[in-house]
Amino acid sequence: MLLNLAIWALLDKIHSDRHAPLALDGLFGWACYLIIALGAIAVVARVNSRTAETRALITAVLAAAPFVLVVFWLASDLPLTRVRPVLVTLIALAYLAVLAVRVLGAAFGIVRVRTALAAIVLTLLAPSVLAGLNLDTRLWVADETAASEETDSAQAEVLFYDQPARIAAAVERVRATTPNHPGVYFVGFAGDGDPALFRREAQFAQETFASRYGTDGRSLLLVNDVEDRDSYPLASVSGLGMALTALAGRMDPDNDLLVLFLTSHGSQDGLEVQNGSLPLAQLAPADLHEALDTAGIRYRVIIVSACYAGVFVDELKGDTTAVITAADAGHTSFGCEEDRKLTWFGEAFLQDALPASSGLEDAFHRATALIAQREDAEHQAHSNPQLFMGDLMRRKLAAIEAGKPGDERHSFTVRR
């Protein structure tokens, strides 16, 4: 048994990273498999005879095991094993079945049919049992966490360094404002990279406002997505500030209107911003206020689709501002499951209400009624969506609605 363990450790060392340290945790998996093997040997011995000597079978198995270990482990390195894994597995099982019968002969002399069948069945079941348990038997294990963190850190540095150029390129594709013709601009911010629901909702909001307010060619998206960090600039606090400031250079910041749509998980501290292992700061209401003020965009419609989104209202409200939230400051909103296209708020406001409404306020009230009905039907606490509308913003929206902006339509998608 000690010889088998020594061979196991040697083979594992040969196949491990050069500087991998010894990890004795692998002995637990090794011992578990050994106990299972001893149990199988005992079963075969009892099938052979109630008086059969189990020790004789154990001795024969352990005598053959070093050879089997070396051959099978080294055979796993052969190209044929990678190219034809099914064929190699069948050959290995056939060999083990023959070997099982020979081991029985060495242990008991006469091989009975029922004993041979029991040994062959247990041998053929062994790969499935081992795969199902999937215990770690490695004795030399590299620090995979440290290596992964080092790789992520290097990738993050390159990714963050690239963001200003990506944002600048995205904003450069935005159509500049037409003099004496107030236009509507759209920025979508998908804060949480997992689930991809928030990316889908930001994209759907972009399409909805393009159709309703003519923001085609006047929109950009900042997106976190753990599966795709290249199609859009990242959604980060600093990235949002850069995008708004750059976009203000394409707008008439005193007359054009900005629609900022933010979607993510939320808390009473603000909006969650995460993209896998990337170190990203969370978006607090004060951070958003500062970014908007720094950009100098006067007329702002801020829509926050998140739990506890009402925490943004008091910080952002003003005469030239509208704030629409999916919930008040003390309640959650619903519909953040990965398999959904939109959240409950996004579905009610963007899909059902806004296209058929007379304006944003009308769309909000329609959506609120739909959400309340759904929450009652599914026995959920009311999320209580919030609306603040400044007096000057109400006039601006009325003028834009009356002027029917966006007669010029241009297909536009921001990509790297």
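[next item in queue]
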Amino acid sequence: MNKSISTEFKVGIFVIIACGILVFMSFKVGKFKLFGGGKTYDVSVYFNNAEGLDEGGAVQIAGVTVGRVKKIELSGNKAKVILELGEDIVLRKDASAIIKTKGVLGEKFVEIDPGTVEEVIPKNGEILTVRKTMDLDKFIEHVDSVISDIKEVSTNLKKTMGGEEGEKLLKGIFNNLYELTYNINNLVKKNDEGLSNTVKNLEKFSETLADKTPEIASELKEISKNLRDILAENRSNLKDSLENLKNSSEKMDQTLASLKNVSEKIDKGQGTLGKLINDDSAHENLNKTLTGLNKMLSKAENIRTFFEFKSEYLERLKDSRSQVNLKIYPKPDFFYLIGGVDAPFGKFSRETETVTTPTGTTTTITEKQKEKTVQINAQIGKKFHNLEFRGGLFESTGGVGVDYHSSNQKWKYSAEIYNFDRKYSPNLRVSAQYNLLKYLFLTGGVDDIISDRDRRSFFLGGGIRFEDEDIKYLLSSAPLPTK
């Protein structure tokens, strides 16, 4: 007992102490205490739907975390959410709350508007105003309504443009446009002759005035010249306008024909829009797709993950045993466990030696144990109330195990048996774990109980344990580094 403690055991104890200090400081900075000592108070709020919101989730004001979701329970037909806020957070009577999501697939949290009136919500009071958020099912209903409106517009367009009456209407429009362009052209021709005569008369008038007043004649000639240029320019522009009008008429004809063709194809169910409007199965497929997406997102939010690290000192072997495990619950009663173990000894190996002598043949089997290596845990388990049964790889060998959790979740009793390929008895291990705090625990027990090679050893240790929601909360509560 006076021998020095191994380096691995010292490192394990140091890691546990450092993690404990980190957890304690994170809660201190976040204005919450590990021990229920005040500095916080509770308020409640009732939501019609609190789906996706978990206990331990963040409570924010203007994007700043000011508390957490303490408890969620059913009250009548609504979800009663109890919020734990810092003592310095003041909520007014007109305060409001809403459930929001960080990003598209992020976690949900409660956003609070603290209000502006003078009257304050007391401790254990209630936030009366709840703001609404967009619901995916209502969005699907809106999409279905829009599709119905598009189909109705297409039907009305077909009734207006389709059939003999529609064709007569379009022909009448084209005939009216043709007559209009023809009349404008005739008008321009008639005005062209009249303007030419006017110019000639002005020229004669200017010659007459030239005899009497040379200066006036000169000015009139200039006016006549300018007027002639203006008329010529306007005549060219007018012709261009008529040409453009003619081209526009042809393009309009093509557009109406294309519109009619598209309307007929939509009505016959051709193309993507036609199938979407006329095929009822397209509506059903769209609804199924959106419903499936909603279910998939709900399942992803229900997956729970636990991280555990522990280190134990084996008294007889004078060595430590450390392991890291990740426990994943895709369902509340089913889980996977994967991890690594830094065991004091490696797996056993057998060597067979056969010696032939004049008196006969002798076979010797020697069992050797490998050097200390990292072993693998890979198990699946099923939970029945407070009992959990596991099976798979235990330190890279086959085995089974059972865990029992006390009703208050403070104690866990475990038994594991594995390493059946040893020459001698398999390894039977029993242990008890006490959850000292939410994240810290102590463990102790006996390793290799039924060993007939004198490997039985008592052990004592401890570790840390986090859930994925705890890691998110710790990261959001920890202070950000500043320059």
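[queue empty]
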